[in-house]
Amino acid sequence: MLRRLTLCMLLGLLNGAPSHAAEPVAVVASFSIVGDIVRNIGGDHVSVDTLVGPEEDAHVFDPAPRDAARIAAAKLVVMNGLGFEGWMDRLMKASGGMPKVAIASEGVISHSATIDGHESMDPHAWQDVSNVRIYARNIADALIQIDPEHDGLYRANLARFDGELIALDHDIRSAISAIPAERRKIVTTHDAFGYFARAYGIEMIAPQGISTEAEASAKDVARIIRQVKAEKIPAVFLENISDPRLVETIAAESGARIGGKLYSDALSREKEPAGTYIAMMQSNIRELTKALMP
Amino acid sequence: MINLFDLLIMPFADFAFMRRALIGSIALSIGACPIGVFLMLRRMSLVGDAMAHAILPGAALGYLFAGLSLGFMTAGGLIAGFIVALLAGLVTRITILKEDAALASFYLISLAGGVVLVSLRGSNVDVLHVLFGSVLALDDHTLLLLAIAASVSLLSLAVLFRPLVLECVDPSFLRTVSNSGSLSHYGFLALVVLNLVAGFHALGTLLSVGLMMVPAFAARFWSSTLDGMILFATLIGVLSSSLGIVISYHAGTPTGPTIILSAGAFYLLSILFGQKNGLILRLLPRKHLVA
């Protein structure tokens, strides 16, 4: 019964599909957030394959042979850049393919983050919506270059998506301005929110280093608890990738509220609240508001 | 004096998580270090390592099934450990493979199976994080689990003590006078599994083997009686836990590894200065007894 139903739906899809025979352009995106932006600009004309999927951590991604094959078959590879995908160079060489490579973050003003004395580039530029407007433009340019026939369509999609981004940016700003200024600070397990903090004026304090690989020491935890108490930080947040037990310890001992899930460098699965970039940012701002409003 | 107080006592007075870490790792030392002495004496020092690898996939599966749940991860680890111990014992008995080979084969299968199952679910990063344990984030339930594991293993060791000692010194004699040999053997392996699973919540499976074994090795250089070794091992375990936590607090090093490194430092000191067969004592000319 179920199988017949699926078959009917498939046939229906086939019938309803637009009749122009053009194959969709094969694009590989390095991780879920860039993949979503490509989907927004490319629409039906591109088929997007994402290497690091939803809820996965791109910092420690371990490419499989299948991933090399996907890259070899692709016309365009879109990556974040800023040192986010350290594994991409080797994977590109291993794949043997020669797709065009687009760095989505090109032209973004990058910031560095200093953790434990190491100065390194912070790649999480998409946490500032105005950067994602640059991402979208770069991706549209790349798509137009490899598929100039549909440039009108890509431009139209870009204009629509850009409008949504402007509205999103506006929503975030008005939500933050509703929070009393002295309460605009949180602790999270992952300092992927440097760009967000800078753009929207929320102070973010992280108990761990810039990468999810570092293990916390008793000193770090004690320092954070002291800081939460001294600066009266209203909330601590569990990040969707790191060890949540540490945050619970800090919250219990400092009396701060435990915030919900903040998405930093991976989207959630489709059914969950952060299935797209815009939904992710909206979900984050909802959680922030909930935890920080007095 | 005040300085020493600030250095050693203040961290625990100021922070509940430091007190919890201390209590948890002391409980762990009390349970695991005597087990380590028996493992060492029975030339099974590497069995702890093998068992830790066998437990890991079980705990990981528990995590994938129910998230960060103490109950599921504990149950998963215990079940995986028991299955591997039982199967290895069975294969040793009914085939020509020796125990080390049987154990190695099953823990390798268990480990590989665990890795495959975990990667089928997609992400493996969060699991890795969880498997490293966090001695800084022990909640009430975890502390209770550690205390229960320590109590159970002390009581069981008291019951199993005589057959275990016999098996250490003369296993064939034990077989002729009693058939409790296999019971005590499996009981003992169960205690190894129990302590590793408990330790896994605080230190992660691999590091908890360190707290089990390294103090036992160090204790070998301080006493030649079993009671003495057990006492010294537990003492060294407790000392290195406390020292590791304090160093991690002041120097900012990750806590679990610092505890094991402290135990390692005790071990090296014991090799050099130990009362029993320590290198320095052996190199010094011996005094003749004067009548």
Report on this structure.
The complex is a heterodimer of chains A (294) and B (291). Chain A is of the alpha/beta class and 294 residues long. Chain A has two domains: 22-170, Nitrogenase molybdenum iron protein domain (Rossmann fold, 3-Layer(aba) Sandwich), CATH 3.40.50; 179-292, Nitrogenase molybdenum iron protein domain (Rossmann fold), CATH 3.40.50.1980. Helix content of chain A is 46%, strand content 16%. Chain A contains ten helices and ten strands. In chain A, strands 2-1-3-4 form a four-stranded parallel β-sheet, sandwiched between helices. Chain A starts with a helix and ends with a helix. Chain B is mostly helical. Chain B has a single domain (2-281), classed as Orthogonal Bundle (ABC transporter involved in vitamin B12 uptake, BtuC). Helix content of chain B is 81%, strand content 0%. The radius of gyration of chain B is 20 Å and the shape is globular. In chain B, 48% of the residues are buried. The model of chain B has no long low-confidence stretch (mean pLDDT 86). The interface between A and B is medium-sized, with 28 and 32 residues.
Order of helices and strands of chain B: HHHHHHHHHHHHHH
- For this structure, the CATH topology of the largest domain in chain A is Rossmann fold
For the terminal residues of chain A, how far apart are their CA atoms?
53 Å
Would you identify the CATH architecture of the largest domain in chain A?
Answer: 3-Layer(aba) Sandwich
Query: What is the fourth-level CATH superfamily of chain B?
Result: ABC transporter involved in vitamin B12 uptake, BtuC
Tell me how many strands of chain A there are: 10
CATH superfamily assignment of the largest domain in chain A? Nitrogenase molybdenum iron protein domain
